[in-house]
Amino acid sequence: MMSKRRPAAVTKVLVANRGEIALRIVRTLRELGLESVAVYSEADAGAPHVPLATQAVCVGPPAVSESYLNIETILEAALQTGADAVHPGYGLLSENPAFAEAVTKAGMTWIGPPIDAMNIMASKTHARAAMAKAGVPVVPGGTVEEAQSIGFPLLIKASAGGGGKGMRRVDTADEWTDALAACRREAAKAFGDDTVYLERCIERPRHVEIQVLADTHGTVVHLFERECSVQRRHQKVVEESPCVALSESQRTQMGDMAVAAAQSVGYVGAGTVEFLVDPEGAFYFLEMNTRLQVEHPVTEMVVGLDLVAEQIRIAQGEKLGYVQGDLRQRGHAIECRIYAEDPVSHLPQTGVIQTLIVPEGPGIRHDSGICTGWEVGVHYDPLLAKLCAWGPSREMAIARLRRALDEYIVVGVQTNLDLLRHVVGHPEFAAGNTTTAFLDEHSYERPPVPDVAFIARALADLVVSEPNGSATNTDHYGDAHSPWKRLGGWRL
Amino acid sequence: MIRRFKCEGLDSSVEVAVESADDGWEVSVDGRVYRVTLTRGPQGAMHLQVDGDGSHVVHTDPSGPNHLVVDGRAYRIADVAAKRTRRASDDSGGLVAPMPGTVLELRVAEGDKVTQGQVLLVVEAMKMEHAIKASKAGVVSHLALVVGQRVGAGEILAEIA
Predict the structure, then answer these.
(1) A19-31 and A307-315 helices cross at what angle (nearest 10)?
(2) Which chain B residues have a beta carbon less than 8 Å from that of A414?
(3) Three-state DSSP class for A403?
(4) Could you tell me if residue A119 is inside a domain?
(5) Residues A417-473: pLDDT tens digits?
(6) ipTM of model
């Protein structure tokens, strides 16, 4: 049985994160009538999540290692402001057992899973072993000694890695020795641990994950699946729920497996069990993320729950209050991640957001950490915002998302909006033919630059908008005799 | 005025000429001529009506015109001439200084009749001489310079009516 200790009620939560997820968590805290403490680096003093929180504390210089990853400073901020709980968001310290332990030891509530469960899942090899023991199918694989029996192509993965980092594909036996050495070097450098393991390479899989919720009273449910197959370099780009490829029985099976996986490690809170689904429909455990996922909004829209609110209820010892049979998927939701990136090279971009026009209207949800005038700098993840659309059907969700993407305007920083329009507008996406190879097989080609772009560029130099809402032709060179003075053309 | 623009991702540049027209502009893009009118839209947008090409929504970067979004699609388009020399003549009759320099020689005066290609004045900059030629035949309607006067890049030197 679960512990009888009833954790104290949460009243004031420090949000140990930044950007859109910090804002998203603070919003729920406000809705719940709880106090919030934002933390921010010197570069984030003007960030949108700061003024929305009850209180805000600067935790250091821009570099994450000196601010958002500084456990000591963040703990001090929590204690100094009288916070009684910490929500870690995703990324940063969210899957760091040492942080969870420090929070707990300081007498605060950790809004996350038990440290033991975090520890097991933090090691991919331990996680695989635990899952295999619990009867959850894992991708065939093993240790480096078993390479020949696993066969090629295979993946070498860092045990301490995850999220696509520390991973290398080996197609033939010839590449094996070099690839293994390179992957070990990378793993040692990135994670301080050169332990690697092998997995058979599953070609053109779908990435399907199951959201689970577990309370401290032994109830574990799943909130169905999210499909996150459309990825670039193992980073998710478009996510949706439900997954069109799952039959009702597969859905039930995968959900049950995810629940079993969570139960086997004594999981509590919100977590995600990731699977690869091969073209034949067989599924294999990939990893478990012991935190809120970036793409959690699609689940919220389809299931009708606020996952952050559920996390807080669970953390203060409440019962879920519902069972699996109470949960339904309603309609369809799709999320796309808007990144500051060069549309051609896909490299992260920086700059000041000069104009930001965010779509509104039926079925649209927008979670962002940006605003007009916001400087997208070099220190943080290039994720600017998440745009979600809900519809009663997948077709309707796609139509809404396409419409919303067309309305979305960002001036000042290059974004992947064109790529997202390409994906969401693609006939193969509409047909539900999404695999992790989607962007390789249907790569985005920039269309020719239309003449109107050059017309607009030439005219942009000649006219300047006035802040009072009128518009004037202005002299480009400040010369009274400029012929531009005489240019007409405004219909006001 | 004729200008040369290069869009990021394209190898070649494009020549754009803008002339004012009755209720808008006549813009030629590599020789294709469009009649364009502008109206203002919400949130700083420009709405372009382009004859034969429908209506377009343009958002520009107030901090610099190189980044613009046309119909939701982002472009970076730089004025390639701006980095080198600005063309010294334009079809609308205004003649601009190609670079900062000094007026070395004046060969015509206001009111003079000129032929197309005739040298009107010479500007010296960085020890190089640049002849400013008439872009079209006509009468010099404006020329208020003296020899030795300093001019800035892009400054209007003369106009031909």
Answers:
(1) 70
(2) 67, 74, 76
(3) helix
(4) no
(5) 999 999 999 999 999 999 999 999 999 988 899 999 999 999 988 775 433 333 444
(6) 0.75
